[in-house]
């Protein structure tokens, strides 16, 4: 059970946040687009911290679960909390894949594939523009102005 409030943003919050997004962020987060391989800002990020949803700030992945998949996108083997990710069957472009969206706001993050490393065997392949990064020791973003959750876990757990 997560300590984070998974209630979706209000319509007003959604409008306000959408107004701050770049054209590329809107295309990926809201229209299920994909950024070009090997160009995302977080592909080679090796700092300790937490990757959060660019739209609503929900923690999605810890840096300790990041690995170099060689695919050109930031990849992770385990979510911050399973309840923070929603999986959707994606049959677009003549393929069958599993799309990942933020469980709180529904923003498109990327796809998950069953070819990752141990211990999970999963490769969560994400778009950098779908993410924000909070370095270890810094407070997590509060985009929805809900305050820090009680008992917020350490970002390096």
Task: Label this structure with key terms.
mainly beta, Metal Binding Protein, Guanine Nucleotide Exchange Factor, Chain A, 2 helices, 9 strands, 10% helix, EC 1.8.4.12, Met_Sox_Rdtase_MsrB_dom
Question: What secondary-structure arrangement, pairings included, does this model have?
Answer:
Layout: H1 11-18, H2 23-29, E1 49-53, E2 59-62, E3 66-67, E4 75-76, E5 85-90, E6 97-102, E7 108-113, E8 123-126, E9 131-135
Antiparallel strand pairs: 1-2, 1-9, 3-4, 4-8, 5-6, 6-7, 7-8
Low-confidence region ranges: none
Extended strand count: 9
CATH evolutionary superfamily: Peptide methionine sulfoxide reductase
Please tell me the total number of domains: 1
If you consult CATH, what is the topology? Metal Binding Protein, Guanine Nucleotide Exchange Factor, Chain A
**Structural class label:** mainly beta
Helix content: under 10%
Q: What is the CATH class?
A: Mainly Beta
Average residue-wise pLDDT: 92
> What is the 3D form?
globular
Give the count of helical stretches.
Answer: 2
**Quick one: biggest sheet?**
6 strands, antiparallel
């Amino acid at each position: 059970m997560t300590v984070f409030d998974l209630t979706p943003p209000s319509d007003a919050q959604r409008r306000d946040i959408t107004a701050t997004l770049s054209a590329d962020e809107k295309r990926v987060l809201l229209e299920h687009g994909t950024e070009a391989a090997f160009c995302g800002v977080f592909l080679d990020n090796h700092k300790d911290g937490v990757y959060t949803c660019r739209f609503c700030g929900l923690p999605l992945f810890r840096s300790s679960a990041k690995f170099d998949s060689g695919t050109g996108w930031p990849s992770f083997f385990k979510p911050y909390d399973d309840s923070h990710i929603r999986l959707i069957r994606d049959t677009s472009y003549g393929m069958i894949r599993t799309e990942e969206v933020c469980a709180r706001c529904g923003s498109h993050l990327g796809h998950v594939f069953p070819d990752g490393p141990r211990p999970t065997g999963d490769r969560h392949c994400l778009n950098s523009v779908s993410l924000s990064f909070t370095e270890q020791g810094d407070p997590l973003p509060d985009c929805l102005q809900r305050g820090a959750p009680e008992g917020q876990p350490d970002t390096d757990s």
